[in-house]
Specification:
The chain is an alpha+beta fold and 130 residues long. The protein contains 4 helices and 4 strands; from the N terminus they run ααββαββα. The chain has one domain: Gyrase A, domain 2 (2-Layer Sandwich). A 4-stranded antiparallel sheet has the order 1-2-4-3. Strand 3 and strand 4 form a beta hairpin. Helix 2 crosses helix 3. The termini are far apart.
Length: 130
């Protein structure tokens, strides 16, 4: 029984550094462009142009960004149609839409796991251009 215990303790001791090395590896982000049909790729670009023209400000969050838009109907419609398409190719994002009362601003927060901010800045750079 002692030999068996010693063997299991050795295996556990060897496995711990491997498990922590795996846990420390950064998450890799990528967009699966094959998730969208040709028609959907045209749609996401069209909605993206509307959002680009309407974005007023961006704010950094601990795990992503929040974008502020005027709360007009075309912008709102473009955003709620853009999100399912973006979600199909980038399933690691968390999306939140907030509409302020009394005709206030439209807010979209795009967040995710550690490291996602760099990905957002690179892949969705057009949202930061004004």
């Amino acid at each position: 029984m002692n030999a068996r215990f010693a063997f299991l303790a050795t295996v556990a001791a060897l496995a711990l550094p491997c498990a922590s090395a795996i846990a420390e590896e950064p998450t890799r982000f990528y967009c699966d462009r094959t998730a969208l049909s040709a028609e959907q790729r045209v749609q996401i670009r069209t909605f993206g142009h509307t959002l680009h023209d309407a974005v007023q400000r961006s704010r950094e969050l601990p795990n992503g960004y929040e974008f502020e838009f005027a709360s007009d109907a075309p912008t709102y419609q473009a955003l709620v149609q853009y999100i399912p398409l973006e979600r199909a190719c980038c399933p690691f994002f968390e999306f939140n839409v907030r509409v302020a009362p009394n005709g206030g601003k439209l807010y979209w927060s795009l967040t995710g796991p550690t490291g996602v901010k760099d990905f957002i800045r690179e892949e969705l750079a057009w949202l930061f251009e004004r």
